[in-house]
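Friendly challenge for the regulars: who can give me the structure tokens for this chain first? No prize, just bragging rights.
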Amino acid sequence: VGTSDCPQCSPAVTLDLSQGQRVLEHIGAHILFDPSIIHSALPLCGLCLRPAPLCQYFLKKGKGVHASLTINTESSKGCLIKTKYSYRVASESTASSPCSNVPLRCPLCPKADPAVWRYFLKTHFLEKHKTATLSKYEHLWKLTNFETSEMRKIWAKRMTATVKRTKKPQRAPLVVLEDHHAQIPSK
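First reply, four minutes later:
Bragging rights claimed.
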């Protein structure tokens, strides 16, 4: 999977593409708190920050009766950052994964249209659905105070590289008694 430099950070911050959720968080923090992006009149891609028309994401229902939505990798195209993440996990803000910026189907656009990233859904409505009653759809893009505060912390620490943590073994090392040591006979 590899790495990619953040398209916005200077000096460059390397993103570990094997950690899709962390990539979403880093880019999501830019979308929410970076002054050069906050004032963007166009929706941008939630992974590479290019104008949304260049990066198109389509959704499909996952396999199984109770499956949630997932990214349709066959029909999605254009994004420069190739990373995988669990759509279901990423769509909900939690303590371990605060960013909920995922592509969402706009309820007013034709089903064949590409999805819109949650953090830009209000911008999409203001641009494409000027006569729609925003309060009716606000729940789709409104963030909780928890998500906003956690994403602000990520923004504050964005220049710090995060190290992938590995689990340490829970068992104590094996102790071999002297009586059980094997010895090679000497000549």
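Confidence is low (pLDDT under 50) at residues 163-167. The two ends are 54 Å apart (CA to CA). Your move, everyone else.
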